[in-house]
Amino acid sequence: MYGNSKNWPFLFFLSVALVLFILLGVRLIYLQVIKGEYYRGLSSQNHIRVIVTPAPRGVISDRNAVILADSKPAFIVSAVPSEFNRINSALVEQQLGMSEGEMNEILDEASAVPHRPVVLREGLGVEKVSSIAEDLYRIPGVMIDVAPLRRYHRPEDFCHILGYVGLADTQGSFRGEVTGRTGLELSLNEILSGIPGLKREVVDALGRVVEEFRGASSEDTVPGGNVALTVDADLQRIAIAELEQTGMPGAVVIIDYENGDILCAASIPTFNPNMFARGITQDEWNAILDNQDNPLFERAWAATYPPASTFKVITACWLLSEGLISPDYMPNPCYGSLTLGDTDFGCWTSHGRLNVVQALEQSCDVFFYRTAQLGSIDGFAEYSACFGMGSRVADVLTGEKAGLIPDSDYLTRAYGSDGWGLGNLLNISIGQGELLATPLQLAVIAGIIASRGEMPHPGILLQREIQNPVLSSDVVTDFAFDTVIEGMLRVVTSRRGTLYNAFSDSSLDFWGKTGTAECPGENHALVIGFTRDPMPLAISVVVEHGGHGSSVAGPVAERILSSYFAERGEI
Amino acid sequence: MLNEGRFELTGRDRPDLLLLISIVVLLVIGLSTVYSASKAVSESGFFNRQVLWVGIGIAFFLAGTWFSFRRLEEISPLLYLLSCLLLFATLFLGSGPADRWLIIGPIHIQPSEIAKAGLILMSSWWLSSLRVRPRRFGEILVFLTILPVIILTLLQPDLGTSVAMIMIVLAIFVWAGYGPGWIYLIISPVLAAVSSIHIVFWILFMCILGLILYRRRYPFSSWVIFMGGNSIVAALTPMAWNLLETYQRSRLITFLDPSSDPHGAGWNIIQSEVAVGSGGLFGQGFLQGAQKELAYLPARHTDFVFSVWAEETGFLGGLILLAAFFVLIWRITLAARKSVNAFNSLVTAGIASYFTIHVFVNVGMTLGIMPVTGLPLPLISYGGSQMIVVLFLLGLAVNAGMFWREV
Question: For chain A, which domains are there?
Fold first, then answer.
C-alpha cells in the first residue's frame, strides 16, 4: 500500500542505508587495506603509550597580587607496566627508597590498563632526581617527567582559607592527579585544576619512543585558572600573630563593609599545608591529631559560638525599630539580677537606672531582660534573621556554618511545648541560650550597623558580583542605627565603657561592643566593632576560653587594626 | 490508497528466505566473535550465556512471526507504557554499569533496549491511527507521547541512545509520508542552534527554511513563527555559550560526549583502530587476534565486538558482515513496503531504521568515525535484553513480509 502509492520513502530508506554503509566500507578500506601494514607493525612489535601531562594548577593571590599558592617544578617517576621487566624491581625499589615488594604490588594493581604509566614517586627535587636518573634511564619502562608540585607561600597564615591539595582518589583519573581537598582548593577545584594534556606515543619493546601515534590527535594541557582573593596578606599575618599572642584558639574576621570584601579571616591554631601537598609523613600527621586544639579546624566561618553581649546591638536595634522602647526609655533599675519565677537572671554588676545607650555602653544584662519581655521570641528571631543570622552569608567558603536562631518552633521541637518560656527569650536577648553565630556573622553584624544596612554580602573572591545587602529589608529605622552607633561609640569613649581601657591609648576611632560567652571552663572572649577612618572595616574577634571580652578580645582588635594602619602609614 | 482499517487478505506468503539467511549468518558471526572475545581472557561464561540468549531469542523470533499484528496493534500502547515504567524504575533501582540495569532476582534487564521496541510500536500505533482519524496537531501528540522515554533515557544519562531513539521515530515519520521538508521544520530549532557557529551556516539554514516554507505554501503566521523563533534560538545560543564558565563548558561537552573521557585518552578507540587495521585484508585468523590487542579492552564482547571480528577476519570478514547487514535492512524495508496495513508497514520500517542506525553508529565508533556511545551491534554484541528484543523485532519483520494484498 505505502509502497505502491509512494515509492520515495522506500528509495530514501535504502539510499540512506547504502550511503552510510559505503562510508563504513571506505573507512574499513582505509584502515585495513591502505594502513593495514602500518597497524600490523604497530600491534606486533610496538605498544602505544598514553602520556598524561598534569596541568599546572592556577595561582592564588591576595588583593595586592601577593602570591599565596603556586606550583613549583618537581619530578615524577613512573613506570609503564607493560614495558617494565620485573627483574628490575629491586633496583628501582632501592633507588627510590621503596620497601621490598612495593614495586610488584603497584604493578599488580595497575595491570588492568598496562599501557598507562603508574606513578612510583612524585614531588622529587632536582638534586634527588639527578642522582637517581642516571640509573633509572637505563631501565625500560621507567620514565621521569616534570610534574608541578603545589607550593604555599604563607602556609600558616592561609592554611584554612586555601586548604590544601592531595592525590585524587576518584576512579578514572590518572595516577598522580592532584585535587583540592579542603578550603578554596576544594571549592574552586574546577577553576584551579585545568585540563591535563595527553600525548600518545608508539614505543618499541625497549621503551624507546619510535614516533608520535598517527591516528588520534593529542590534546594540549590547559593550565588552571588563576584566582585573586579579597584578603590582604599583611592584615592576615598581623591578625594571626596577634591571636597567637593570646595562647588560645580563636578567630578574627575583618570585612570592608562598603563592598563586602573579606580582608582577613584568621583562625588559630594553624598548620602547614605544604605538608599535605608534598605528602604528609606519619609523624606530622600524628602531631596534628595529638593537638587538642585541632589545627585543621577552621574557626572563622566553620565554628559557631554564642555571640553573648555582642548580640545586644541587634536586640537594641529590634527594640528601637519596633517601637518597644524609645532611646530615652529607662526601665526599672538594675540591682544585679532579675528574678523570673524561681530563676535568677544575673547581671555582672549593679548598673542602676540606664537608657539603651548606657546599657550598651556598660553591657547591662538586666536592661535587656526587662525590655525584651515587651516583644515576642518569634519577632526577635525574624529580626535577627534579617542580619544574616541563621544562614550562610558568604560566597564560596568551604564548610561555612549557618549558626542558629532559636524560634518558638525550634524550642518546641527541642524541649516540648511546655518546656520553654519567657526565660529563653531573656537569655537570647543577651546573646546566650541556644543562639549560635560564626565569627564571620559577628563581623557582618558590625558591618551592617556601620553601613546602616547597606553592607553587601561578604565575599572572598576579588572578581565577583557585589551582591545585595545582607540586611534584606529596611526593618531597622535610622534612629535605631543612630542610637546603637552612639552606644557602640560610648563603649570605647566613655569611662564606664567596656572597651575604654583597651582603646584608651589608641589613636584609633573605634565603635565596638564586647561579649563574654558563658561556657564550660573559662569563658569565650568576644568583641565586634568597626572603624570609619582610614578604612571602613568591620571586625570580630573571638578568643576561646580567653576570659573577658573587654580585657582579652578588645586589646587584640585594637592591636590588629593599629598595626595594620601603621604599616600602611595611614595613622 | 488509505486502508481505512479495512483490507482483504488474499494470501499468506512464504517467509523471505534472504532475510532468514542474513539473520543466520549474522547470528553465526556474532556467536563466534563472542566466543573468540571471551576466549582471550578465559571467560567462557559469556559465550555460554550468549548461546542461551540466542536460544531464548529464537523463541521470541518465532513468537514474532506468529503473533497477530492486529492484536499487537491493540496492545502497543500498553507495551509502551510498560517499557516506560521499566525505564522509570531504573532511575531509582538501577544498578550495574552506569546504573542502566534493572536486576530482579537472577534476571538482569536493560530497559532502554526494551524501550526502543516500545517506541517503535507506539509511534507506529499513533501514526496509523492518525491516518484513520486525523487530528489537529496530531504529530505534536506523537512527540509528546514519546517524550517520557526520551527524557528518562537522557536522565540515565545516555545521550547516544536517546538520540538514536529520536532518529528512529523520525525515520518512521518519513515512512508515513512526512517529507524531508517536514522533518527539517521539526528539527529546525536544533539546526538553528548548531548553525549559529558560523554566519555562512546560518544563512544556508535560513535559506533552506525559507525555501521549504515557500514550497509548502505556509501562511504568513508560520513564516513568523519559524523564521523568528529560529532566529532567536540562533542568536541566543552563542550568548548562552559565552555566559558559561570554561569549566561549565567542558562539563557540557562531557555530557554531550560522555565518552570523551579525558583521562582514558580515547584509549579504547585507539586500541580498536589498531586492532581493526592490523586485521589487514584477510585477518589474523580466528581466535588469533583477541589475545594481542584487545585483551585489555573492557567492552570487547559488547560495544567493540566488531573490532574483534575485523581483526580476526580482516577486510573480507568486515565486508561480509556489512553486506549481511545491508541485505537484512534491504529485505526488511521491502517487507515494510509490501505490508498490508499502515501499522505493520510502519513497525517494519521502524525496525529497518533501528538496524541502520545501530550498525552505522556502532561500527562507525569502532572505526573511529563516530563518537563513543553505548549502542550495541544488533545480533552480534553480547547481551540478553538486546538479543531477545532484536530477534522479536525481526520476527515481526518476517511476519509483516508474509502478508500482502495482491493488487
Answer: 46-72+150-229 (3.90.1310.10), 74-99+106-147 (3.90.1310.10), 233-286+296-567 (3.40.710.10)
